[in-house]
Amino acid sequence: MKIWTTAMWLFALALGVTLSSEAVAGDIVGVWRHESGEAQVRCVKLMASLGDAELTRYAQAHCDIIERFGRFPHRNRALGRETTAAEQAFLHEQRDFGQ
Q: Which helix (H) or strand (E) holds 43?
């Protein structure tokens, strides 16, 4: 978990956001990477609690992908999963998340 917490701190730093506590960062990272709708909704709430619109937008974008596909299509190749036609179209048009 320590490496994910560090990654979250670095991500926030790159966006110019100061995280109020390591516990908040750990909570966010703990749910951010999960491919479940419940985890992604929790992540959006945690990001919103930081009061940063850009982090919240980023979390919501991840949540929307899970809602739409039930997984992160940009992970398919790395996980050896087949990519559906809808996922391929999404990956082609959406440059924020790609393989």
A: helix 37-49
Torsional sign, CA 66, 32, 36, 78: positive
- What would the two tokens of residue 46 be? 């945690």
DSSP 80: T
Domains annotated on the chain, with CATH: 2-93 (1.25.40.10)
- The model's pLDDT over 16-51, given as tens digits with 9 standing for 90+, comes to 666 665 556 666 766 777 899 998 998 898 888 888
> Token digits for 17?
């956001």
pTM: 0.71
Indicate the residue type of 63. C
